[in-house]
Amino acid sequence: MTTDTERLDQANACHDDDPARGAELLRAIDDSQLPSDRWPGYAFLLNHVLGEKLGLWDETLQRQQALLKIARPAPAAVLWRQAATAARVAGATDLANQMIQAFADASGAGVERSAEVVQLSAAMFQAPGQAAAVAGEQALAALAPLNL
Predict the structure, then answer these.
(1) Among 25, 50, 99, 148, which one is least packed by beta carbons within 10 Å?
(2) What's the CA gap between 75 and 71, in Å, rounded?
């Protein structure tokens, strides 16, 4: 019998060559059966595979929200960042703002900086599916507040 940890490992191994298979494996995972130290990688793969590669941001957001519920009462900052990113790209602005606040609280980075990090994270996930000029503009806009 395949465990959820093994499914996550399999999804991580195949997702670039076969995003549909990676998504199938991610969907088969019972979040509550994953060890908490695997949640950050799982949250990233949800955004990377379901969101970035397959454009299924609403589903991605739903899965991120389910993971946050399991991680209660105090989800790690990285989980808030991934969920806020999914909310932002899915167009759920109010929810994204709430999650950015939670990310700021969990990280101690402040709301403004947390919003900038989420903006940059969203640009990273959106860029591969955009025309080069649009992706470049979005990346530059996301990097500008970071004073790099």
Answers:
(1) 148
(2) 5
The Cα–Cα gap between 35 and 37 comes to 5
Q: Return all residues near 124 (Cβ < 8 A) that are at least 6 apart.
A: none
Q: Tokens in use for 13?
A: 């191994």
- Residue 138 pLDDT class (50, 70, 90 cuts): confident
What CA–CA distance (Å, rounded) separates 131 from 71?
36
Q: What is the pLDDT of residues 42-77, one digit of tens each?
A: 999 999 999 999 999 999 999 999 999 999 999 999
Backbone dihedral angles phi then psi of residue 42, each to the nearest 5 degrees? -65, -45
Angle formed by the axes of helices 111-126 and 132-143, nearest 10°: 160
Q: Nearest-CA neighbor of 101 among 114, 91, 92?
A: 114
Give pTM, 2 decimals. 0.90
Q: How many angstroms separate the CA atoms of 97 and 77, rounded?
A: 14
Distances (CA, A) of 84 to 10, 15, 115, 137, 139: 26, 22, 9, 21, 18
